[in-house]
Amino acid sequence: MLADRRHNGTVTETQPDTAPADAPPRKIIHIDMDAFYASVEQRDNPELRGKPVAVGGSSGRGVVAAASYEARKFGVRSAMPSVTAKRRCPDLIFVRARFDIYRAVSNQIRGIFKSYTELVEPLSLDEAYLDVTAYRKLPTATAIAEEIRTRVKDATGLTCSAGVSYNKFLAKIASDQNKPDGICVVTPRQGPKFVARLPVRRFHGVGPKTAERMQRLGIETGADLRAQSQEFLQAHFGKSANYYYRAARGIDDRQVKPNRIRKSLGAERTYGEDLHDRDAMVAKLEEIADTVWQRAEKSESYGRTVTLKLRYADFETPTRARSLDHPVASRNELLAIGTELLDTLIPDPRGVRLLGLTMSGFGETGDTVDEQDQPAQLGLDI
Ligand SMILES: [Mg+2]
Asked: Which of 159, 262, 312, 365 is the Cys-Cys partner for 350 at CB 3.0 to 4.6 Å?
């Protein structure tokens, strides 16, 4: 769907009837690289082209970090255990992740974004929002997005998809609409209709669990969501209610924030059965360190402080932290510090029901916000 190219492709042609009357429409672009890690690997190794490729470890507890489009046809998805992926696609080729290369490409594309606006908000290595409202050299945001896509292709040999709209919420959904190598424009006039047809699970911030809850309440689409009162949403979704209420109307006033400073990055797990054995706890800590380290690599954020959180069976929840004079250098260092902190809290007769690891102390280098286990819980800052 190449929306509204006939109408000059502009996203400013009409005032959205849902926006505050005094707010001029903005021009927001969301750029998302197509199957980023996998595409980089296929670019750099011709033998992988046209083949089902998964970036990630193939053995044991390995997890797919990214899948090529050929692999996706078999149902291989990122975050899927490699064992499952292999079952779905026996010919799947596993490739080790090369984050240094992904970071270099990421810097290249950010350089291109920055030539249009200072208002660039990266969400990860391969995704960013741009506010191009003030850019005057091209007539429309659509033209800017097309030029960016061409320049990204020329500079990196990789394709990306673009969503063009008047807010972040719609731009992000739009970039997914015509993937790969596609563009989708949602004008202020089209916004409310576009949202009405959308399945709620495609709303940013609606995870599988929330989507299920909504379904039980008879809410499947944006139109269903829009039909609910603020009171109803408040009763069922608490602090997310306002976000849903506005999103269902295509409204999202969040600014593109270029200098978000990451404060912490971590993960924690609760266990169905209390852990008593140190070896078992260290094994669990290893899994958590893997997750945290993966997130750190993805967002290029390495903190100097490591915090261990532990919950005993009686719910007492102490934390222990240690700060280094350098950013944590490896997953093994993270785990070693975590284990050292763990040893200050065990053995303990109560048993342990939760373990967590967090990195903080990023200085000025980070460019994203708090990322804990549920990055999808967006809308809190709306
Ligand atoms: Mg992507």
From this structure: 312
